[in-house]
């Protein structure tokens, strides 16, 4: 049997969750935190290695999940501006034409988005939004995997791996955004979000036998985030 103490505690929790929902309004800040997955939709140019071997499939970039954070400021009851940040994403890179690990890279994709809240100014638990903006992606810590260096050696007929360096150019591109908050009370809510981001980079592989091997890679990821929102 629940005691009076337990009943009072349960009633307090229910009452806290049932606090009135207040509309998003001009001047509000909304912080969202959650698990963010970057899922690339990769399209790569062929890789021509010193006119000796061409890899027509290019490369593929795998997905990664990190902590995502957004900060939104309501310019009016329905218009807002938002900045996306995250802990660094770490992606493995593979060859499309062979089961070979080609390398890896880290990146950060800060994205500034102009947002529309159709329910802004209305007291509703469901607060959807859409938006568009611009992304800057910074790549660093690019590394070439030993499997690729061994494959380069085999391509030129060497018994030894060919040391190589990888460089990825930073990217500017457009971004589209949609999602919703489901508000539990005046401050807290559940959030689900999705972005499509245009990320294009030029990759350069440097070796002693094939300097400046360049090819374009369209990463163009879908980014999914699920977490919580907090309004103040």
Description:
It is a single chain. With 232 residues, the chain is mainly beta. 10% of the residues lie in helices and 57% in strands. The strands form three sheets. Strands 1-6-7-10-11-13-14-17 form an eight-stranded antiparallel barrel. Strand 3 and strand 4 form a beta hairpin. The longest helix is centred in the first third of the chain and has 14 residues.
Please specify the SSE layout and strand pairing:
Blueprint lengths: L3 H14 L11 E11 L3 E2 L2 E3 L3 E3 L3 E3 L2 E11 L4 E8 L2 E7 L5 E8 L2 E6 L9 E19 L1 H10 L8 E5 L2 E13 L4 E10 L2 E8 L5 E6 L3 E10 L1
Let me know the average pLDDT: 89
Q: How large is the share of residues in beta strands?
A: over 45%
Task: Please state how the strands of the largest beta sheet are arranged side by side.
Answer: 1-6-7-10-11-13-14-17
Shape, per Cα inertia axes: elongated
- Biggest β-sheet description: 8 strands, antiparallel, barrel
Radius of gyration, in Å, reads 24 Å
Low-confidence stretches are 11-17
What is the number of strand segments? 17
Helix content: 10-25%
- Tally of helical segments: 2
What structural class do the secondary elements suggest? mainly beta
Following the backbone from N to C, one meets helices and strands in this order, namely: HEEEEEEEEEEEHEEEEEE
